[in-house]
Amino acid sequence: MNIEQVPTFEPATAPPPPIGDNRPDMIQHARDAWARLNKWLSDHPAVQDGTEARDGKLMLDVAKGTLKDLREAREGESAPLYEGWKAAIAKYKPADEALEKLLGELNKRLSAYALAEETKRRAEAETARKMAEEAEQLAREKIEAERELAENVSLGEIGVDLGSAQAETDAAVEEARQSAAIAKAAERDSRVRIGGGFGNASTLRTEKVQVIDDAAKAIAAIGLTEDIKLAILKGARAYKKLKGVWPEGVHEEDGERKLR
What we know:
There is one protein chain. The chain is mainly alpha-helical. The chain has three domains: 10-15 and 22-99; 101-194; 212-248. It has five helices and two strands, in the order αααββαα. It has helices spanning 26-43, 50-154, 162-188, 215-222, 226-243, and strands at residues 193-194, 202-203. The protein has a two-stranded antiparallel sheet. The chain starts with 25 loop residues before the first helix and ends in a 17-residue tail after the last helix. Residues 1-23 have low confidence and may be disordered.
């Protein structure tokens, strides 16, 4: 098949070629070639002699030519779309990057403010928590002291001011209740929320980051998947280019021998 036979594809919006246009449908042409090759392979599970080898060579050349023409047709149709895509990316990229850069700087400053404010609020919440614990402990002591006084009165002790003890206990219990409420509110409000604007309030979020502790153990657990293999070989080729030798654990050898 000659290069001249490769069709020139119009854009998808173009009208279909006129009746009588002799340009082949390359997809159908490739399917037909596949069908012929598939039948030949089915009829020849193994190449037995020189005649079959020459027939196979003919099928090889035809299939390779068809595949080449198919890919050229694909490139002819897709290249303008790809170039248009690249042009659109290049057109919008400067404004996109400039705005994203300033947006990142603003986000950085707001995050720094929110982090500092949250640190301050958490310190205040911790202080309020400790005060609530102290108030609760004092209330427990007042309750126990009142119980002891009431027990002494029941045993006949004279001159015990049980009313004052009860008043002190009630005041301590109320103080503990208020301190607990303050501590709870401080803990709730320790998370900074920046309102304003027209979107949802912004809050600090902790992003999860995956860390490799031991690459060898990770690969042993996951297995040498195709993605990991490709990544290792890519790194090995870069290492070879830089150092002139393959890294330990990787070597180069002859692959499968096949016709070209």
